[in-house]
Amino acid sequence: MAERAVCVVGTGLIGGSLLRAAEKAGREVWGTSASEPTAAAARADGFAVSTDLDAALRRAAATDALVVLAVPLPALAAVLRRIDAVAPAIRLTDAVSVKVAVADAVATHAPRARYVGGHPMAGTAESGWAAGSAGLFTGAAWVVAADDGLDLEVWADVAELAWACGAHVVPAAADEHDHAVAKISHLPHLLAAVLAAVGAGQAGDELPLALAASSFADGTRVAGTRPELVLAMCEGNRDALLAAVDDALGRLGVMRGSLASTGGLAATVQAGYAARQRWMASRSPAATRIQLNGPGVLAELRDLGRRGDVVVGWAP
Amino acid sequence: MAERAVCVVGTGLIGGSLLRAAEKAGREVWGTSASEPTAAAARADGFAVSTDLDAALRRAAATDALVVLAVPLPALAAVLRRIDAVAPAIRLTDAVSVKVAVADAVATHAPRARYVGGHPMAGTAESGWAAGSAGLFTGAAWVVAADDGLDLEVWADVAELAWACGAHVVPAAADEHDHAVAKISHLPHLLAAVLAAVGAGQAGDELPLALAASSFADGTRVAGTRPELVLAMCEGNRDALLAAVDDALGRLGVMRGSLASTGGLAATVQAGYAARQRWMASRSPAATRIQLNGPGVLAELRDLGRRGDVVVGWAP
Fold it and tell me: Where is the Prephenate/arogenate dehydrogenase domain positioned along the sequence (chains A, B) (predicted)?
């Protein structure tokens, strides 16, 4: 059996990288962009990318391809309505950075689609087709939603696409994914923005920025991401993000109290050091091979993800 | 005239790099460490480093060398008392990350020293002699204190050492320096610690750390710094750091309110983006050459630093 063809909707950094990676892995690939200059740039690089969304979706329906949505959250509803109109029962996944909101949008606008959410955990501060690369997902975690009731055949399609792109699969419930990314992706963007603003301070006092070195450079790097991308990502994950922000505010408040009263920062600094060490130690997760059968397989997969393990292929 | 010899007290990352850089620039250099294994490692690399502080200071007094203090703030008083005992009128600077507290300690424990504070803005998450390199200061800002009443001859010594190490000089009043580094160095360490702790969350829920990618990696990098170094740095700058923490808390509180009420984050994200762009644009400061004369020269130097300009050498 030839491996499943891939249709990518949205060819920015993530979609464009996915198109390149899947093509390099031998898949038949094509894509679509809302921007003619972007589509032209992709074509100039040898990829079949057009602005004709309906045609791309019809080709996916005709070849039973996997459609990957790689557009920002605010652009999703319009694409889903076209899917429902021209290719309603398509195999569908996405690469959007929140999962509950996308699942809700699919249920509303394209309820017949065979949808299994995905989220490759890769990115750079750059954006757009030109910033993409076939290697972007190498070694990255690729979340595949594992909520009860999902279509296991499409689950396998999404996992195989992740593996073809060099990533490992982390199964997770949509809401657990959203809480996790609020902590490790969305909160970092907001703290970076606040740190940059504190450092810049008042115009006319240029001394702080003149002294800023590597700790400021690293701590504010993602503040350089295009604001509309950060807003689409963070505002689409409001409830989980509020919980993460409150967690951070609580810890900062305790720290502020300690600094003001005793002058001590040991609890904060040691907890941060231990957490960073724990993360470093978790960088080599247990690589698991699975079979997609049994009635409780999705629950087992969610447990696997909570343990920090990853899936790298099928068990024989 | 031969260039001034340099005696470095403390040969960790900063002092060890300074020893290497000054030696590479042709200076006569020697150093001292409180740790015999560190001293032995430095000697194995060909540097005259011993644990005999008094002998190193006497040699500095005999040769009119510049002594550089590169020990953590809590270790400073003991060294200063030895200076007052064996080499009281030495030319003295330092590489400690706060300036008011060091100036106060010098005034208390070694009041006869000809002291001009310094702070090279360079570092890595690594520490110790082995982590040092002659190139650590290349292109870095090196603050030289410019408070009224300082010894201009030693000011020139410190500036020339900075230039010899490949850095550019940023003149600043000690208290303005401390407020600046609270914003761009100490606050980044505390935010990194809090972010790491939020991401690590509860043991048993490994999903967030399993998904953490570049935004978390960058945002928490300095949380991996040895806690005792972070504590020495941050706790020694309590008043300025409280102001920076309150600035950050105020901005985070406004953001939290907006997220909870309207769901909007545009003000925070756009301000962060603008601040990061402003910092990137300031990376090529105006390179100035100066003469150290006239009654108001230190005030002029402070203004120069507030404008974000840097000093790269003497005007003819």
Answer: 4-289
DSSP strand pairing (B141-145 vs B118-120): antiparallel
> What's the complex ipTM?
0.91
For residue B7, the cross-strand partners are B30, B67
Chain A, 81 to 140: residues with Cβ < 8 Å from chain B are: 121-124, 140
Q: Determine the 3-state secondary structure of A72 from DSSP.
A: coil
Residues 231-260 of B with CB under 8 A from A: 231, 234-235, 238, 241-242, 244-249, 251-253, 255-256, 259-260
Nearest CB among B184, B199, B223 relative to A216 is that of B184
Mutate which: B14, B183, B307, vs A, most A CBs within 10 A: B183
Chain A: nearest CA to B189, how far in angstroms? Answer: 7
Q: In what order do the strands lie in the sheet with A29-32?
A: A49-50, A29-32, A6-9, A66-69, A91-94, A114-115
Chain-centre distance for alpha carbon A181: 8
The DSSP H or E segment spanning A103 is helix A100-109
Interatomic CA distance for residues B104 and A45, integer angstroms:
63
Strand ranges inside chain B, DSSP E: 6-9, 29-32, 49-50, 66-69, 91-94, 114-115, 118-120, 141-145, 168-172, 287-290, 310-314
Q: Is domain B6-172 classified as CATH 3.40.50.720?
A: yes
CA distances from A156 to A8, A282, A290, B152, B211 (A): 18, 26, 11, 73, 20
What sign results for the dihedral spanned by CA atoms B301, A213, A130, A234? Answer: negative
Composition of chain A by helix, strand, coil, percent to 5: 55, 15, 30
Separation CA A265–CA A251 (nearest Å): 12
Instruction: Look up residue A132 and give its two tokens.
Output: 């993409």
B133-163 pLDDT tens trace: 999 999 999 999 999 999 999 999 999 999 9
CATH topology of domain A178-281: 6-phosphogluconate dehydrogenase C-terminal fold (1.10.3660)
Q: Collect all residues with Cβ–Cβ distance below 8 Å to A259 and sequence separation of at least 6.
A: A265, B238, B241, B242, B245
Identify the band that residue B243 occupies on the pLDDT scale cut at 50, 70 and 90: very high
* Cβ–Cβ < 8 Å for B150, B292: no
Among B273, B277, B304, pick the best mutation site for testing chain A contact (most A Cβ within 10 A): B273
| Nearest of A56, A16, A63 to residue A32 by alpha carbon | A56
Cα separation, A140 vs A157, in Å, equals 18
As a CATH number, domain A6-172+290-314 is: 3.40.50.720
Tally the residues of chain B.
316
**Residue A60 tokens, joined:** 């996916």
Find tokens 């790097």 and name the residue. Answer: A221
Domain ranges in chain B are 6-172, 178-281
Instruction: Tell me the two tokens of residue B134.
Output: 């002659």
B84-123 pLDDT per residue, tens: 999 999 999 999 989 999 999 999 999 999 999 999 998 7
